[in-house]
Amino acid sequence: xxxxxxxxxxxxxxxxxALIVAGTLMFLDHRLQTMQxxxxxxxxATAPVQYLAVLPEEMMDRLVYLATTRSALREDNQRxxxxxxxxxxxxxxxxxxxxENARLRQLLGSEVRAxxxxxAAEVVSVATDPFSHQVVINKGYQSGVxxxxxxxxxxxxxGQVISVARSTARVLLIADQSHAISLRAERNDIxxxxxxxxxxxxxxxxxIPHSTELKEGDVLVSSGLGGVFPEGYPxxxxxxxxxxxxxQYAQVFVxxxxxxxxxRTLLLLWxxxxxxxxxxxxxxxxxxxxxxx
Length: 293
Fold this sequence. Notes:
This protein has 293 residues and is α+β, with helices and mostly antiparallel strands. It has a domain at 180-257: Beta Barrel (Thrombin, subunit H). 37% of the residues lie in helices and 25% in strands.
């Protein structure tokens, strides 16, 4: 009579057979890619399970992102509303000052200055020469840009155009060592010359006597002399005054208002007395269509 539970192969024999089978399958898969269909089938079969496994985490991340974005948008919206309100108040104040200025000029018998024409431009490249501070903008003579044209940003004067091509122009920054600009102190109308030092964050005033009434913190604006930069635009603030008597002149360093190390969007000015006129893109497109016709 046979036993109900017959003994099979020993454990060592089973282990050896399993190793042989595993080694054979590994060899065949490595050489012949025999297990590739199996892997593809298993990957396809388990893909929905993997998706369901990570779905809660993705949904939670999405909800957190939406909540954070919504909160950030609220904050940005409120900040922009506050800035808009401030700008509207500033415009109202500016309109009042312009009207008051016009009235005073009429009383004094002076000619009222006409407003400058403007056009925005984008910086497309920066000069790689470490000894020259120049940028290239995406406006050229087809937009009415001309050599010597003043260029500003939202803080103050940046520089002037030194060469013009059809659709680009090169701007020399006020920080360049070859550039100088005539300024006046807003507080007491003292006229000075600011020379570029090669540093994007510092200019130097030339030929300042030790007895000067200039003070640290004085705001310097364009004087209008020289016929390049219109009068009254902010340029720099006096940061350091060194009255060392051993030197022939006082050393006066100023910090530009314009962020010359991160210029991106600039403003081209056409003074009221400029012979050139701005040519806007719509007008250029009309001219090109007429030329084609």
